[in-house]
Amino acid sequence: xxxxxxxxxxxxxxxxxxxxxxxxxxxxxxxxxxxxxxxxxxxxxxxxxxxxxxxxxxxxxxxxxxxxxxxxxxxxxxxxxxxxxxxxxxxxxxxxxxxxxxxxxxxxxxxxxxxxxxxxxxxxxxxxxxxxxxxxxxxxxxxxxxxxxxxxxxxxxxxxxxxxxxxxxxxxxxxxxxxxxxxxxxxxxxxxxxxxxxxxxxxxxxxxxxxxxxxxxxxxxxxxxxxxxxxxxxxxxxxxxxxxxxxxxxxxxxxxxxxxxxxxxxxxxxxxxxxxxxxxxxxxxxxxxxxxxxxxxxxxxxxxxxxxxxxxxxxxxxxxxxxxxxxxxxxxxxxxxxxxxxxxxxxxxxxxxxxxxxxxxxxxxxxxxxxxxxxxxxxxxxxxxxxxxxxxxxxxxxxxxxxxxxxxxxxxxxxxxxx
Length: 419
Prior knowledge:
CATH architecture of the largest domain: 3-Layer(aba) Sandwich
CATH class of the largest domain: Alpha Beta
Strand content: 15-25%
Order of helices and strands: EHEHEHEHEHEHEEEEHEHEEHEEHEEEH
Number of domains: 3
Number of strands: 18
Distance between the termini: 48 Å
Radius of gyration: 31 Å
CATH superfamily of the largest domain: Response regulator
Oligomer: single chain
Mean pLDDT: 81
């Protein structure tokens, strides 16, 4: 996340008795380095500094008014359109009755009583220290949203992708609203649409839509559902058309029939019926034909290759393999940085030993996966017990989302079929 390294800009509005400024001088030494501008009221701030775009604006409500004045609402309207990164704090003198309406229209903002001068300074300092703005790089959308949930952030994440753009609105780490374009989707539908996008760019803004009291499913549930939809879309068969699947080991690479139209048909390859098989003479002994052993080329390599391609599309994936743990043989490998043949044999020993241990302990139930955590990597062994196989995945710890990776392995394992 982009750190705040330049001078902080602070706007004090309506601080006519300099109570806020004095509280900052007494309790926040760092405030001496901030760029502070003061205006007697919101109208003056809007009139004299419409392009200021401060990091934080402090609205002081003084006098007998029990509502946030129209000038303050006009300033918030302006900020909503032109100051996407500006945070707000309301310093009130008494009960402000229209705050729920203000939050619903402009998003949630901290409110503090001006009589508590220390709390005023602490609230402003906390907002400055947690400023979140700018672009985010080097992290996936699911991973970033989980970070925001853990940190209980209140903000908006603007997401841009080839498929469109949208915003995800968080309040104390909870996803409470969303918008996706095209389609003008809102709420859960928008959140799920955005979470299925790939190759996204992220930008942090203040949320103007997290105070409407909306309730969405938990973030983890939404991420899981979005991942399921994305998997289904990626694994859906192509529409029937001018395509030819002419190589049993390369069904993932398809080409039009027209590209083979010029090739000659093999002898006997006409459209007529196939020749009758030659029968042995009557009375001849019919010895049963031996059943050939399963050869490597007889394995459905298209399925193996397609599965490994999908595994390598998991965020943070460095290497992957599909392994027969009975023999220790890798049926397919992809990736770099690990000797996957050695890993296949070694991890097969691990799986067999773990299965023997569970049996000796009398523990019932199947092992789903085995996780090995290193300093900068995760090694995940996902068992496919009904076929005597496991998927082996090496993840970069900094780039991976472990929960999402395990979920996707579970989803992919269901579709593996070795003939």
